[in-house]
Each structure stands twice: as C-alpha cells, then as structure tokens.
Design a protein that fits this description.
- With 141 residues, this protein is of the alpha+beta class.
- The protein has a single domain, classed as tt1808, chain A (Alpha-Beta Complex).
- The protein starts with a helix and ends with a helix.
- 34% of the residues are buried.
- This is Type I restriction enzyme R protein N-terminal domain-containing protein.
- It comes from Thermosulfurimonas dismutans.
Length: 141
C-alpha cells in the first residue's frame, strides 16, 4: 500500500498530500539527490514529511529529520513519520525526539497537525551538519 492511501484512509484531504522537494547533496564524488515519499501541507506550510523504507524504522528517523530540515530551511514541518508499512514512528522535527511508535494509529489527525507550530528556521551552521547527517544516512557513509 502506498503512503498516500494510508493518509487518505486516515481522513486526510487529498489536496493536502503532495510530492516533497528533492534535496541535492554535493558531498561525495557525484551529487546525491534525496527525496522523501510524501509531504502533508496546509497549502502554505509543510506539516509532516512521511517516508517508506523496508527494515528498522527507528534507524531511519535521524536521516528523515535531517531531510525535513534541509528541504524546508525557512520552516521545517513540525513532524516526520517513518514507516516500513507495518511499524510507524513519529518524530518531532525540532528536537528530533520520538513521540509515538506503533502501527498506523500513530498517524496524527490532520486537525492535530494544523494546531502544531512550525520549528524555527535552520541556520547556516546547522544546515552544514544536517547535510552531512543526511549524506551518511542516504548513502551509507
């Protein structure tokens, strides 16, 4: 099942489900393009980034947080969600803290997302750190 279908079943309006932007990293021998699977938006600002990957979901959340911070440096989404289709982990983007783990029931309602405030913009020093973290997570080193 695709992530869009999971969010539609959770009651999200179809117009809020978008393709997230790509982040291009220039740290290796060739540019590395990284993109998550799904962006939830209110039409003006990002609310949540979701990504699917097989394997252990908790091992992938730090890379997804880095992606969210880089893809939206002016104001990342408040939350990211990593899943392997069975396990779901929800993480706060600002602090990188896990707030829920389980099945699809950890997906917050769209209304709950609307009430969350956006994290502060990412400063240039922090951006360089996030680029290295995302590079390591997306390329294996």
């Amino acid at each position: 099942m695709q992530l869009k279908e999971i969010f539609l079943r959770a009651g999200y309006p179809p117009t809020t489900l978008k393709d997230p932007p790509a982040v291009v990293l220039n740290l290796g021998l060739a540019p590395e393009r990284v993109q998550a699977d799904l962006l939830i938006t209110d039409g003006k600002k990002p609310l949540l980034i979701a990504d699917y990957a097989p394997g252990a979901v908790r091992s992938r959340t730090r890379g997804l947080v880095a992606y969210a911070r880089l893809a939206f440096p002016e104001g990342p989404p408040p939350l990211v969600l990593q899943t392997n289709g069975r396990d779901f982990v929800l993480v706060e983007t600002e602090k990188g803290r896990e707030i829920a783990y389980g099945g699809p029931e950890v997906i917050p309602s769209y209304e709950a997302l609307l009430s969350r405030s956006s994290p502060a913009p990412v400063d240039s020093r922090r951006r360089k750190i996030e680029e290295k973290i995302l590079f390591i997570h997306s390329t294996g080193g």
